[in-house]
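Supplementary Methods, section 5.1.

A reviewer requested that the exact input to the structure prediction be made available. We therefore reproduce it here, unchanged from the version used in the analyses.
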Amino acid sequence: MRTRAAVLRELNTPWSIEEIELDPPKAGEVLVKLVASGMCHSDEHIVTGDLAGAAPGPPMIGGHEGAGIVLEVGVGVTTLAPGDHVVFGFIPACGRCQSCVTGHSNVCDAATTLATGMQITDGTSRHHSMDGLDLGLMCLLGTFAEHTVVNEASCVKIDNDWPLDKACLLGCGVVTGWGSAVYAAQVQPGDYVAVVGIGGIGANAVQGAKMAGARAVAAIDPIEFKREKAMAFGATHTYSSVDEALGKLDESTWGRGFDKVIMTMGVGDGEELGKAFWLGAKRSKIVVTNIHPTHEQTISIPASMLTLFEKQIIGSLFGSGNIRHDIPRLMEMYTMGQLNLDDLVTKTYTLDEINDGYDAMRNGENIRGVILFD
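The structure derived from this sequence is encoded token-by-token as follows.
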């Protein structure tokens, strides 16, 4: 079949909206009509080349935060049927590897294929440009397309009456941010928490920390709009920089430092991480969720403090969550009014407006832009 998609042809160029050829699903795969796709900063890392070696390069279809309706299933698919509504998990969960069976599906062995952008089952592509090129997929999904073919392992079935324009956010930003606070940082009632960077992930780290019972949540971001939005998600203090937050520890933590520091910047930066390390109190956890460019190989921190103050640096992928447990769980919390998804979506776009949406993200105008498909 033919459909349309946003294709990255070369690094540091705009997304190209093109008609593509899409093969039918093979064994273990499903054809999905997209309804909505979030516009996450991780796709910007593809454009700039920050993820070189860890994700497919051009030519490729972007997008990894999506939701849609199953149209067709391949041979052997047992958990999905045409008409089912699904949210994609940007890390597939096979359910059989050691990571999955020990409760860590966010680092499923199937994710080793993410760098290729090709199908899990046979390493080939179902997506082809009209000039005959095989197209890789961001996170094996390619949600910047009207239709896509993905592996069953990447799909989470949800109730058909749940709004897909909000559910799409659970495929990455919501669980990643919320889980960074609740799972990776293990925020406890009474904790002091700092969140560095208030985009789609940082906003959810703020509300995750609040829901976990944090005494104070400091949102740190240079953009006033984002600091204001953070207050709506539960921040008690806002600062324009790590330096400002460091200078006001008496105000935010009675001078003790933060129990948990969660890094959710648009682009990870070793120098900022090194400074943020000083925000942490004794026995604090510094959670690194934001993506650092793959070429950045070192950070500078006083290693003696790891021992003498028992500080911990913790990496977190997908908020250390589980797509099959946490996506439905958080969607249920949304329907009960316990999780704020509505205020995350600053503006919606058509597929043809994707470059406008990413310009707005770069300019700090969006918490999350969402593409809506016809």
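DSSP finds twelve helices and 18 strands in the chain. These observations are discussed further in the main text.
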